[in-house]
Each structure stands twice: as structure tokens, then as C-alpha cells.
């Protein structure tokens, strides 16, 4: 296949220390993403997850004699959309090949895949790497080598019967996109960021649900190490990872295992390995067969896949706004920091929620509420944003109440907690529970006088060190249950203490 080259321009951010040298880790990922579509790639059988075993199986999927595959146009469109979302070259002509291999759960005896001529060529995924010691993040571009369409296999079940294995063909023939990265990834952090970003793009596009625990997205992780400046070393491939956290752990373990062998003067065998999350180790599964052993050849049952540029353009014009574009817009039009914008766009549901809160309001204030209050609380309660007990409109009303001067920022947090627990209209809650901010200067003045009278020693100190005025403000806020207008309190405290 194509010769491996370093396409990465940015310097890697860190090296792993061996006992003698520093080492650079080289990673390339092959991600299998199940295409979101109602029917399979070459048959009309349903793709529904969790159905009764062998209930979603057509005669084509069961490889009955004489059955012919028929391409599902929606799966093709999904692959093209994904290619466009990865800024990749779309190939107007691609070819389906047979990859000959015995899979007990793929009765054809071969997998229909794409080899020499995939539907999508080179593209890129931009990841954000950091923070460094200065707290900065840097954008790094990771090359995508190709994306091709192929069939998934079914599932063998070895735990249902003491002496037999069963096969469930529901997944057999479901469309997968295999998305192959260039060996441009340089650390476990970058690998995790790559998978996270890819998943986010797929979810924005609606081309794969990205549910790794259900197996709709899984990654083969290729790892090698080298001394800085050397050429690529021999790699090992860790198969079928379905958790981003485990991908990170497997890379950390595997790179150190390889470094230890090389520093001892040994060699790395190119092999396929499995990660055991309980032991935190990778172990050998099989030595790598050469790709030619699969005896790929064009599937005689399928014509080459051809479509027009106009078709690609029409799909392109209907693509949704993707995370990078959304982030740029949040920064330029709403004044958010790059960091806040990337937190909000990482999940589409968060971005959508934020945009509803921000409608007609200050973007930064809205971002602050969503990131610090809402997302913090969701995390505490281990809830997803789709399960948020508080709606964008409710958060919006709280923000409005602060802006109008009806409540202080402090009280707003209490209102937020009440709405979170009990629901209801924030304005009504403030009204009913007497949470309105006290702007009546007479009442605030009385509270200030009382604190000043009760603390003569502090008053003396504050006259010498004016910054101690803050202490009085805090006491007054406390004594008024947070309801006093903080600006009014501050002004009065300074005036009464005679400090500036
Ligand atoms: P295969 O299909 O046999 O696994 P490919 O050449 O298609 O082989 O490469 C698969 C993946 O391995 C790609 O993501 C590629 O970037 C990665 N890769 C190739 N060489 C290395 C290497 N030396 N170190 C780490 N990853 C590598
Ligand atoms: Mg591979």
C-alpha cells in the first residue's frame, strides 16, 4: 500500500522517558463506525440494536445460495457526508472487493469491503492538545488516510451453553465505515482527543451514533515507538477497543512495553494484541498475517460504485454546522474564549442547549451559566444534558432576573438549585419566596450601620488598610441573606468608613 510518511508538521508535545533515552510514540488508528441507517449495507434487513437474536436477518445476510447484494443508497450518502465532514477527497468511483476470511458469524465466507479504491480518500481531523504549563491549547491536524465502506460481521456467543457456541446474525451485513488515520498521533492524550473529536463529528453529522459501549464505534490502535529523529519502527495493533479511556491506558502500557524490549536490545514482533482492562496489560493474540493473504478481488456481484459531483454537492449543501465552525462562530460572534467554545461544542447537545440559553442574551454570561453551573451540577448528579431537570428557558429567566437587578448573582445560584430540585418559573419563585434583591438604600444603610457599630476594631484597621472594606461588604451580604444589592453595599461601606 502507500508508503508511510510523516504528514504531521507540529512538534510533538512530549516524549516518554525510557531508562536510557527519550522515546517518541507513534500511533495510527483504524476506527470502525457503524453507519446510522435503518437497513443494512446490501440488504433490507433492520439494523435495530438489541433485537431478538437472528430476527433481523435477510436471505442475503444468511448467504443463501443465489442471493445477490443490492447497495443501500442511504449508506453511501452517509459515507459521503462523513468524508465531507472530514474535509476529505470524495472518490466519484469506488470498488467493492471481497476480503476472503473465515468469520463464523459472516456466512458468506468473505467480507465485502473496499480495498484499492475506497469511497473517501485523504482528509484531516483537527484536535486540540493541551493545556501546557502556560495553560494554552494548541490545534494539531491529524491526517486521515481513507474511509471505506464494509460489512460488519455478526456475533458469536460462547456463554449461552456449556458445550456449544451460538451465532447471532443480526449485525451481519450492517454497514461500517472504516476510518484510517495516518500515523500522525503522538501520545495517548492525542489519541483520546482524536477519537473524541471524530465521534463528535460523526454525531453532528448524524452518520454514526458513536455509542462505543454498544459497539457502534470501535478502534484498532496501532502503536510503535522510536527515538526522536529515527524512522518508523515496527508496530503492534491492539484490536477492538471500545472505550476512550481504555485506548489511552492501552497506549501507555504498550509503548512502555516496546521501549523496555528495545532498550534491552530486543526487537518488536509485528503482531495483533488485546488489551485487558482488568490487568491493565496488552497481550499477544496472533502474529500479523500479511494483507495479501486475504486475496482481495473485486466482488463480481457488484458494479463499481459511481456517482456524480452534483450528487456530492447536494449532500454538501445540506451538511449541518460542524464543531470547528460552531466553535469559530461562538468565539467571533458571541465573544466566548476558545476554551469555553470548545467545551460547549464538544457535544452537540451541549452546544444546542447553550444556543437556546444565549438567544437574545449575553453570550459570555450564558456560557458561564451553562459551563459552570449547569454542567457542574450535571456531573455531580451523574446526569446527561438530555436529562437536565432545568431547561434552557429556565436558565435564561434566571439570567434575565440578574440583569434586571431583581436578584443578585448570589441569590441566582439559590434560585437555580430550587428550580433544579422542584422545577417552576424562576420569576415566580423569587416573588413567592421573597428572594428579591434589596435596593432600598434605607434598609441597606441600616444593615451597614449595624455591622460597623458591632466591629469597632475592624473599623480602625480598615481606615488604615482600605482593602479591608471587602470584609464589611461580606458581612452585610451575610446579614441580609445575600439579598442586598452588592454595588449599593460597597458604596455605602466605603462612604461610612471614609475610605476609597
Ligand atoms: P493494516 O490494514 O494492515 O492494518 P495499514 O497500512 O492500513 O495496515 O495501517 C493501519 C494503521 O496503522 C494506520 O492507521 C496507520 O496510520 C497505522 N500505522 C502504520 N504504521 C505505523 C507505525 N509504524 N506505527 C504506528 N502506527 C502505524
Ligand atoms: Mg489494521
Describe the overall structure:
- With 500 residues, the chain is of the alpha+beta class.
- It has helices at 73-85, 188-205, 244-263, 309-317, 323-334, 338-345, 348-358, 363-380, 392-403, 409-422, 426-432, 441-454, 456-464, 469-479, 486-497; strands at residues 16-17, 22-34, 93-94, 97-100, 110-113, 123-129, 138-151, 155-157, 166-168, 175-181, 217-226, 236-241, 271-276, 281-287, 297-298, 305-306.
- It folds into 3 domains: 24-311, no CATH class; 323-432, no CATH class; 441-497, Orthogonal Bundle (Arc Repressor Mutant, subunit A).
- The strands form 4 sheets. Strands 1, 2, 6, 7, 10, 11, 12, 13 and 14 form a 9-stranded mixed β-sheet that branches. A 3-stranded antiparallel β-sheet has the order 5-4-15, with no helix packed on it.
- 36% of the residues are buried.
- The mean pLDDT is 93.
- The chain binds adenosine-5'-diphosphate and magnesium ion (MG).
- Residues 1, 4, 26-30, 180-183, 222-224, 232-233, 235, 237, 291 line the site of adenosine-5'-diphosphate.
Helix residue percentage: 25-40%
The biggest beta sheet is recorded as:
9 strands, mixed
Span between termini: 74 Å
Proportion of beta-strand residues? 15-25%
Which regions are unreliable across 5 or more consecutive residues at pLDDT < 50? none
- The total count of helices amounts to 15
Bound molecules: adenosine-5'-diphosphate, magnesium ion
The tally of strands reads 16
Structural class: alpha+beta
Radius of gyration: 30 Å
Tell me the number of structural domains. Answer: 3
Shape: elongated
Mean pLDDT: 93
Amino acid at each position: 500500500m502507500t508508503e508511510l510518511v510523516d504528514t504531521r508538521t507540529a512538534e510533538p508535545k512530549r516524549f516518554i522517558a525510557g531508562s536510557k533515552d527519550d522515546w517518541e510514540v507513534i500511533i495510527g488508528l483504524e476506527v470502525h463506525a457503524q453507519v446510522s441507517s435503518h437497513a443494512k449495507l446490501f440488504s433490507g434487513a433492520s439494523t435495530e440494536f438489541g433485537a431478538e437474536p437472528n430476527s433481523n436477518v435477510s436471505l442475503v445476510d444468511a448467504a443463501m445460495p443465489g442471493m445477490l447484494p443490492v447497495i443501500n443508497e442511504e449508506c453511501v450518502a452517509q459515507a459521503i457526508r462523513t468524508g465531507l465532514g472530514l474535509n476529505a477527497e470524495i472518490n466519484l468511483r469506488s470498488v467493492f472487493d471481497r476480503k476472503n476470511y473465515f468469520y463464523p458469524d459472516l456466512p458468506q465466507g468473505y467480507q465485502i469491503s473496499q480495498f484499492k479504491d475506497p469511497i473517501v480518500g485523504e482528509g484531516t481531523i483537527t484536535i486540540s492538545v493541551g493545556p501546557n504549563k502556560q495553560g494554552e491549547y494548541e490545534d494539531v491536524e491529524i491526517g486521515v488516510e481513507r474511509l471505506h465502506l464494509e460489512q460488519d460481521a455478526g456475533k458469536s456467543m460462547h456463554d449461552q451453553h456449556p458445550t456449544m457456541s451460538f451465532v447471532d446474525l443480526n449485525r451481519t451485513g450492517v454497514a461500517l465505515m472504516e476510518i484510517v488515520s495516518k500515523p500522525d498521533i503522538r501520545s495517548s492524550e492525542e489519541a483520546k482527543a482524536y477519537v473524541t473529536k471524530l465521534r463528535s463529528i460523526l454525531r453532528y453529522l448524524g452518520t454514526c451514533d458513536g455509542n462505543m459501549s454498544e459497539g457502534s464505534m470501535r478502534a484498532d490502535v496501532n502503536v510503535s515507538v522510536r527515538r526522536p529523529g529515527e524512522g518508523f519502527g515496527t508496530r503492534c495493533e491492539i484490536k477492538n477497543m471500545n472505550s476512550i479511556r481504555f485506548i489511552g491506558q492501552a497506549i501507555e502500557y504498550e509503548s512502555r512495553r516496546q521501549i523496555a524490549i528495545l532498550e534491552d536490545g530486543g526487537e518488536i514482533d509485528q503482531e495483533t494484541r488485546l488489551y485487558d482492562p482488568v490487568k491493565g496489560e496488552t497481550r499477544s493474540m496472533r502474529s500479523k498475517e500479511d494483507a495479501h493473504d486475504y486475496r482481495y478481488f473485486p466482488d463480481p456481484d457488484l458494479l463499481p460504485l459511481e456517482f456524480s459531483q452534483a450528487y456530492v454537492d447536494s449532500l454538501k449543501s445540506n451538511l449541518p454546522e460542524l464543531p470547528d465552525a460552531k466553535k469559530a462562530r461562538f468565539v467571533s460572534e458571541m465573544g466566548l474564549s476558545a476554551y469555553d467554545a470548545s467545551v460547549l461544542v464538544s457535544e452537540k447537545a451541549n452546544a444546542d442547549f447553550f444556543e437556546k440559553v444565549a438567544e437574545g442574551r449575553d453570550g459570555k454570561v450564558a456560557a458561564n451559566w451553562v459551563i459552570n453551573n449547569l454542567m457542574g451540577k450535571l456531573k455531580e448528579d451523574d446526569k446527561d444534558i438530555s436529562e437536565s431537570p432545568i431547561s434552557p428557558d429556565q436558565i435564561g429567566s434566571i439570567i434575565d432576573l440578574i440583569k434586571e437587578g431583581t436578584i443578585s448573582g448570589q441569590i441566582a445560584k439559590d434560585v437555580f438549585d430550587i428550580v433544579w430540585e422542584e422545577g417552576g418559573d424562576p420569576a415566580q419563585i423569587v416573588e413567592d419566596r421573597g428572594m428579591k434583591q434589596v435596593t432600598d438604600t434605607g434598609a441597606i444603610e441600616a444593615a451597614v450601620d449595624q455591622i460597623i457599630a458591632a466591629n469597632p476594631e475592624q473599623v480602625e484597621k480598615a481606615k488604615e488598610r482600605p482593602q479591608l472594606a471587602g470584609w464589611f461588604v461580606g458581612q452585610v451580604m451575610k446579614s441580609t441573606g445575600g439579598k442586598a444589592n452588592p454595588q449599593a453595599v460597597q458604596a455605602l461601606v466605603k462612604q461610612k468608613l471614609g475610605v476609597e
